[in-house]
Each structure stands twice: as C-alpha cells, then as structure tokens.
Amino acid sequence: MDRTKLAVIGDPIAHSLSPLLHRFFIEHFHLPFSYEARRVTPDELPRVFVELKNSSYRGFNVTIPHKQAILPLLDESSETARAIGAANTVIIEDGAAIGGNTDVRGFLSMMRLAAVDLSRREVLIIGAGGAARAVIFALQQAGVSRIFACNRSPQRLEECRRWMAATISTRSEIWAWHKLSQRLRKQRPEIIINATSVGMHPNVGESPLPKTLFSPEMTAVDLIYNPLPTKFLQEAKEAGAGIVDGLNMLIMQGVAAMEMWSGKQLDIEARLPELQKILMNKIA
Ligand code: NDP
Hints:
Blueprint: E1 5-10, H1 18-28, E2 34-39, H2 45-53, E3 57-62, E4 76-77, H3 79-84, E5 89-93, E6 96-100, H4 103-113, E7 122-126, H5 130-141, E8 146-151, H6 154-167, E9 171-176, H7 180-187, E10 191-194, E11 219-222, H8 231-238, E12 242-244, H9 247-262, H10 272-283
Parallel strand pairs: 1-2, 1-3, 4-6, 7-8, 7-10, 8-9, 10-11, 11-12
Antiparallel strand pairs: 3-5, 5-6
Helix pairs in contact: 1-9, 4-5, 4-9
Bound molecules: NADPH dihydro-nicotinamide-adenine-dinucleotide phosphate (NDP).
C-alpha cells in the first residue's frame, strides 16, 4: 500500500496551524505527502485510529484531547512518549502504529534557536498539564540544575510531583500557587516558563505572573504562540528580561514529526523567517 497521506486529529481542529505548517514542509522539501485536518471526537477515536492505520496514511499528529488517550491504542510508543504519558505524533511502519512525542525536541530546538543555554540553570515552570511534562522532561535532558514547579490546582500539582519523582532525577521543588510570588522573590530562577494556557487568545489580557516579579537577568519563555507576544512576555520585556515565544516550538515539533514520516532531515533554518511570517499572518 502506498502510504502518502498525513493528518492531524483533534477536537476542536478548525484553527489548527498544523496543515499550514506541514504543507509548507511538503512543498518546500518536495515530499510525497498530502496533509489534512480531521475533527475526531473522543468517541470516534478508536474507530478513526483503526481506519488511519489500515488505509493509506503514513502517520498523523494527535492534538487536544487525544494525546493521552491514543497511548493504549498504539502498537508501540517511544521511550519519551511513555515517560511523558502522551503522544503527539504517530507513524505507521509495516502496519504497526508507533507513537512519539516531538514536543520535547520542539522545546529544545526553540531554546537553541533563541541561544538560551539551559545547562546548570535554575528554572521555574508554571503549569502542570501535558505540555509542562514534555518541557520538564526536556529540561532534564538539557541538564538544568534545578526545576521549580508551580500550578494553580493543587491536585494537578500533586500528580505532577508524583510523576516527577518517578521520572525525573533532576533536583526539583514544588511551589504552592499562593506562594508563587514569595518563592520567586526568594529563589530568583534564571528562566521562567509559562506552560499554562493563561494569556492565550482570546484571553490576551491575562498573565500568570505579576509584572513586578520580572528582572533584567531573567529569561521568560512562553509556550503560547497566539498572540505573539503574550502579556506575560510583553511585561517581561518591559522589565528588561530576555523573552522567547512559542512559535519556534510549534515549528520544530512539526519538523521532528515530518522527519519521522519522511525519513529525511529537513534543513529548516534558512527557511525559518519565511515560515514564521506565513504562520504569523494566519495568527494575526
Ligand atoms: P493542558 O490543558 O494540559 O494544561 C493547561 C494548564 O494551564 C494547566 O496547568 C492549568 O492549570 C493551567 N491553567 C489554565 N487556566 C489557568 C488559569 N486561569 N490560571 C492558572 N493556570 C491555568 O494544556 P497543555 O499543557 O497541552 O498546553 C498548555 C499551553 O501550552 C497551551 O497554551 C498550549 O497552546 C501551549 N502549547 C504550545 C506548544 C507549542 O508548540 N508552542 C505545544 C503544546 C502546548 P490547572 O491544573 O489549575 O487547571
């Protein structure tokens, strides 16, 4: 069977940037694929999964709300996907569906492109959802010296604490939400990452942190790419801190997925400004 189709499955899916991103790769690197967005509800997931696996799909991306639910359906998953408990990319190889998680590589590539060295740094991550786990896993790989983790709901923070204890060997500390400002003033982490959805379109007037807590020696990183920049990053910049927005993570997790499907290395860096412009036009 000729496997030339690719897709992203999720719900909602109408505003996904993945078709634009992957069609750019297909066109510019002359790859033999087509890419579509498919709205798939949780009830439909098992049926659609079997359909994709047994028809002409080379693979697919998985987004909200299926990143965790897809795992038990897969024939195999990468060590990273298993450790994080979520897959965002599936490849069909010899009839078997194999899941991976390219958010880890996306995050590390974004930080490399921004020339932010993570090794031996103290990092605060705000948020404890799926993206936060991928980032925490990446921070360990990058050799940070300490991770401070904070989240609004204590239940999810506790789940994250247990997951970190079982998965991560980097020194870490958990901060209760109501103590965030106080702990931040005391510890002064060098890098602060927003892995919550606070400040994401349409709630563009919100930030997870009071602006008085930023200082020029910090770097603020936001995984959000709509809007660009978020209020969190705008306020960090006004305080003189370095900033990194989430657009390159989106692009680089996509590059990693397309490299899995095509078996080719995509030399994206020279084309990055052009692709960023296309995506930013769609976001604006
Ligand atoms: P989840 O739904 O799994 O987690 C959402 C997180 O946001 C939780 O920690 C939640 O805390 C927190 N949160 C939501 N609303 C509030 C609020 N009002 N106040 C404080 N905390 C809040 O989402 P993901 O982890 O998948 O995604 C998180 C963000 O990362 C999203 O904005 C997403 O767009 C972005 N992202 C970007 C990627 C990229 O490529 N650039 C890749 C993946 C994600 P609580 O537990 O208290 O509800």
